[in-house]
Amino acid sequence: MKTIVSGIALLTAIAPHAAMAEPIAYEMDHNHTLIQFTWNHNGLANMSGRFTDFDGEFNLDFEDPSASTVTFSIDADSVWTGVEKLDADMKSQRLFDVGKNPAITFVSTSARKTGLERGQLEGDLTIKGVTRPVVLNINVNRHGRHHFADGVEKFKDALSAGLSIDTRINRSEFDLGMAVPWIADEIDIRIETELVAYPEGKPETDK
Q1: Rg (CA), the chain
Q2: pLDDT tens profile 18-53
Q3: pTM, two decimal places
Q4: Nearest in space to 122 (alpha carbons), one of 68, 62, 75
Q5: Distance (Å, rounded) from C-alpha 97 to C-alpha 157?
């Protein structure tokens, strides 16, 4: 893994005077995570690409979201659009310049709850050596005992969580302004991820 990682926060109501729990460290399930970006091409169609190499650390407290932190890192060279020439352009000096800027990173700075299962995570996003503040909108799809806790030995003490995350950035603010405005400046980013935590320690056979 060529990258680094960090920060997200989460949500649910906290009862007055309830005991505060410590954040729990969740791991990303790489087989069930999608990091996708979408842009409009010449006002004609919405096109998408994705990154295939990434990692992250999610220290989550569902009782006190403000105690949660997230950091994640993406290998810029793993960009994939399904079009070989476009992938080459994405990796070149004209856009991500992956030779000089191999990692895209996010580090959370604060988190807050905005609804029953929704919240926002503020943090610093760095692309191509440029760091800007962003706000990630988070929907908590599920959290609790792992689905396979009663049937698979390695998951007997495990927890799982599922998050849908989205935000919008202007790529020109990250020195990625090639062909603006013919190709849209606005980029929609979507992350779908499943997370696993082992509060009692990860099984030895799975380390």
Answers
A1: 18
A2: 345 689 999 999 999 999 999 999 999 999 999 999
A3: 0.85
A4: 68
A5: 43
Residue 47 Cα distances to 37, 39, 90, 150, 187, angstroms: 8, 5, 14, 42, 10
CB 8 within 8 A of CB 25: no
Homologous superfamily in CATH for domain 24-206: Lipid/polyisoprenoid-binding, YceI-like (2.40.128.110)
What are the structural domain ranges in the chain?
24-206
Q: Count CB neighbours of 184 within 10 A.
A: 19
Q: How far is CA 22 from CA 60, 142, 185, in A?
A: 8, 19, 40
Q: Token pair of 158, please?
A: 């495990």
CA–CA separation, 194 and 118 (whole Å): 16
